[in-house]
Structure formats: C-alpha cells, structure tokens
Amino acid sequence: MTKSIWTVVACLMTTGCMTVQPLPVDQQQLARELEPGDRVEVVTKDGRRLELEVDGVEEQGLRGTSQQILYSDIETLSRKKVSVGRTALVALGAAAAIAAVAGGGGGSGSGY
Description:
Layout: H1 2-15, E1 17-23, H2 27-33, E2 39-44, E3 49-57, E4 61-64, E5 68-70, E6 74-83, H3 84-103
Antiparallel strand pairs: 1-6, 2-3, 2-6, 3-4, 4-5
C-alpha cells in the first residue's frame, strides 16, 4: 500500500499545479512578456483551441514549433505556467497525509 501512495505523490509532484495568465493580443507587449519555451493556449476566432510552445514573437503573429498563428486570427491568448508554490503545498500535504497513514497503525486497543 505504501508503494501505491508514493506513486500518487510522485504523480502529483511531476504534474504540478498549473496557472493560466490571460495575455493581450498585442505584438509589442507579447515581445516583452513571452520567451521561447513558454506554453500558451490560443483560442482562434473560428473557435479552435490550440496549445503552442512559443519559438518566437514575430511582427505578424506567434511562431511555434510547427506552426504560426497570426494575431488577426487570435480571439484569446493565455500563458500556462507551473505554480511552484502551489505544487510544493500539494506535495507537502500529500507527504503529511502519507506519514499520518503510514504511522497511524498502532493504537488505542482495549488491551486484551
């Protein structure tokens, strides 16, 4: 049982807690805020939802690994980031719960 609990904790720690930050669809501001490797979620004006790892912010649009999206096609844009603080709190809480379960086997028996 302990092994399966540690597996759950490991999964929590690797996935992390994601935060989503809305961004304006403005080339100058995006050039200041986005860096290569940032992950963004784009909703296009025709309703498509795309996830993109940014390679560059260009004059006409965002460039990703295998595609370019024009600013004129973007309805909304959000940056996705792992929240280190939230992830640490979740991991600490899970570790505390595991310690409580693993150490709580003794007890308050009737003493027969």
